[in-house]
Amino acid sequence: MHTSFSLLLILSFVVSLVALAAMVWAITRGHFFGGKKAALSIFEEGETDVLDDPASVYSTRTHQFDAVRAGIDKSGRSVVLVFLSVAMFFLLVGSLYGLLSSFKLHLPDWLSQYEFLTFGRARTVHLNLVNYGWLSVASLAVVLWVIPRVFRTPLRRPRMALWGGLIWTLGLIAGALAISLGWSDGVEWLEIPWQISVFLVVGVLFVAWPVIETATHREVEHVYVSAWYFLAALLWFPLLYFIAKIPGLHFGVEQATLNWWFAHNVLGLWVTPMGIATAYYLIPKIIGKPIFSYNLSVLGFWSLALFYSQVGIHHLVGGPIPTWLVTLSIVHSIMMFVPVIAVAINQHGLMLKNMWAFKQSYTLRFIWLGALMYTLSSFQGSLEALRSINTITHFTHFTVAHAHLGAYGFISLIMMGAFYYILPHLFGRAWPKPGLIKLHFWLVVVGITIYVVFLSVGGWLQGVELLNPATSFETITRNIKPYLEWRSLGGSLMTLGHFVFAYHFLIMLKQPKAHTRGGE
Amino acid sequence: MNRPVAILIGAALILAFATMALVVIPGFQVHNLETTGYLEDYTQQELRGRQVYINQGCIYCHSQQPRSFGQTPADMTKGWGRASTPADYVYDKPHLLGTMRTGPDLLNVGARLPSQAWHLTHLFQPRAIFEWSLMPAYPFLFELKQQPAADDLVVKLPSQFKPAGHQVVAKQSALDLVAYLQSLDRTYPVADKEHYLRDQGFDGQLETEQSQEVKNESGEG
């Protein structure tokens, strides 16, 4: 038995190496070779070397709201707007549920008479709404807006995408209600009953179809890097979710491995590619310069697909599953340094050479800070998979802090930046109160900093104490409580920031038309 | 990278490979385990209680997977039990391993805390037992009665937690949940062969000795 598993591991390595070699070969033979010309494909003439941020007073673009692409944006305009509004709604409700759960952790008798708000349900509704509601729907909005732009052709079948969004949204609301009322499939990240999750699969396919159809009608030779991630993610998610939700097939520890195969892939192969791709489009666009090394982005993409897809079992280190499986996921977690560094060189390399833009644009601050948090949370995540560190952080609030550094510090900040960039282009007018963008930025940045710092420290101490046979559970519980209270403070600031964001969004929607689209 | 279809095919193949490694192969290895002979399937009432455990979200604070002694002596010292093996979970649909220990591990809570009365009090108001506890109270699993019926189970409470003029009576859902908690007992001995199927990465010397035994038993080289 031992031999066969060793062989399995070796095989896995060989396959990985062969894939890497194939990739290197493809690059040297020029199959992947895009170079600077490909990196510049997102710019029109005259767009380089000037700041493009409609929310910034420094932006001096003559055709400030993209008259060039007005025709391309037009077809998807209303569907993008609907998706953005839905995402905003889920952000608000989702963060209120998060805040409620956070307070309940240190005030266990608060509102405890209401069964539908009990911690175990409120926390789960929070996770489902922010992941499948806020992050996913905001990502889909960005996909529907960026894809036509990088392919230089209007969005095909916008009504189908709209239906997809509607089906997805109704499914998610039904799922959240089901969980609140005590109907849950009981598996983390997969709580929504399978009868309802069918809606989510159908919904995302309804969005994927128009995107793929738009891709086939593209009017550029090259497929820009953001589109690789978007297209792959739109394929990965329905597959993952469908396999994970097949009823009656999974049970026992096999289901546990499936559980974390899914749960980490929904981050690694769904929201992460969305975040990376958004940054790959918006950072160069705002600065007006192409990314650092376009060829490196190819390595980043394929290594992400290969390594990220196999890290999930690091959630079960030290658990009742075979050793080889745990080791496999630890190895891949460490290999994640490859794609993360590739993306980091590309995005931060460009940014660090253009820090002037960081000072001038709050939109860019959101996006680049998000990209920076991707690097940070990924490094942290890789290290957390190591047995020596995992033995401390596993089962503790450290993991929760890490999850928020990734899902919030990275993806949410990037999506917020995307809102600030996209909406002025959709409406052809500037944000009414730029001061609110600043306020929003500082509230959420201070909030998430408090959240992550305190919860990480508290979680680490909790982990050390859990390993010590001499420490009683009473001591552990008493010691973690102050850190949970700090987390509530951080969460409150973040939620407040979201309301500022939503208010600004609302007055942007209601503002009378100041410019006609493409008229400048 | 000029062909979207090629990108999609590549992406699908990589996911298929990962699924093979993380789900299908381990599935073959641990899916059709024989039960240990000690572990019994859940009763109807315990299964109903398990559903309460699921729908109240107990899993978000309680794991059901004690760690090995090689990783830490703490789990054993706290009475959470020996390291669990895949065969301990053959009746678990869905699995409830959990990844959080805001509260203690519960895989052997039935052996550690067998008293029904204790659990009922603790579920109604955890702070009636541990004043430092952060566990939510579950008052909605109980009802208040002025005159409990003869077959009602009245929850024992310290005076400061007693509602004035009423008795606290357990609803069926509370009784089911407690029956499930009482059933959680994997303290039976485990054979090396089963132990070999769990993660032994923390167990150092122990692992090589045991895997040697497995080899000898099964006659593999």
Considering the chains and any ligands shown, give keywords for the structure:
heterodimer; A: mainly alpha; 17 helices; globular; B: mainly alpha; Cytochrome Bc1 Complex, Chain D, domain 2; 2 domains; electron transport (chain A)
Written overview of the protein:
The complex is a heterodimer of chains A (520) and B (221). Chain A is an all-alpha fold and 520 residues long. Chain A has one domain: Cytochrome c oxidase-like, subunit I domain (Cytochrome C Oxidase, Chain A), CATH 1.20.210.10. Chain A contains 17 helices and no strands. The longest helix of chain A is centred in the C-terminal third of the chain and has 38 residues, at 473-510. The termini of chain A are far apart. Chain B has 221 residues and is mostly helical. Chain B has 2 domains: 1-32; 33-199, Cytochrome c-like domain (Cytochrome Bc1 Complex, Chain D, domain 2). Chain B is 39% helix and 4% strand. Chain B has 8 helices and 2 strands. Chain B has a two-stranded antiparallel sheet. In chain B, helix 2 (44-55) packs across helix 6. The model of chain B is unreliable at 207-211 (pLDDT under 50). Chain B: InterPro entries: Cyt_c-like_dom, Cyt_c-like_dom_sf, Cyt_c_oxidase_monohaem-su/FixO. Chain B: Residues 44-185 form the Cytochrome c domain. Chain B: Keywords: Heme, Iron, Metal-binding. Chain B: Residues 212-221 have a biased composition (Basic and acidic residues). Chain B: Pfam families: FixO. Chain A: It comes from Marinospirillum insulare.
String of helices and strands of chain A: HHHHHHHHHHHHHHHHH
Coarse structural class of chain A:
mainly alpha
Instruction: Tell me the CATH superfamily of chain A.
Output: Cytochrome c oxidase-like, subunit I domain
Shape of chain B: elongated
Total helical segments of chain B: 8
Secondary-structure element series of chain B: HHHHHEEHHH
Mean pLDDT of chain A: 91
The CATH first-level class of chain A comes to Mainly Alpha
Strand tally of chain B is 2
**Strand portion of chain B, in percent?**
under 5%
**Beta-sheet strand percentage of chain A?**
under 5%
- Count every helix of chain A, treating DSSP H or I runs of 4 or more residues as helices: 17
CATH topology of the largest domain in chain B: Cytochrome Bc1 Complex, Chain D, domain 2
| Oligomerization status of the protein chains | heterodimer
State the helical fraction of chain B. Answer: 25-40%
CATH architecture of chain A: Up-down Bundle
The largest chain-to-chain contact, stated as pair and per-chain residue counts, equals:
A-B, 103 and 88 residues
Name the average pLDDT of chain B: 89
- CATH third-tier fold name of chain A: Cytochrome C Oxidase, Chain A
How far apart the termini of chain B lie comes to 47 Å
* CATH architecture grouping of the largest domain in chain B: Orthogonal Bundle
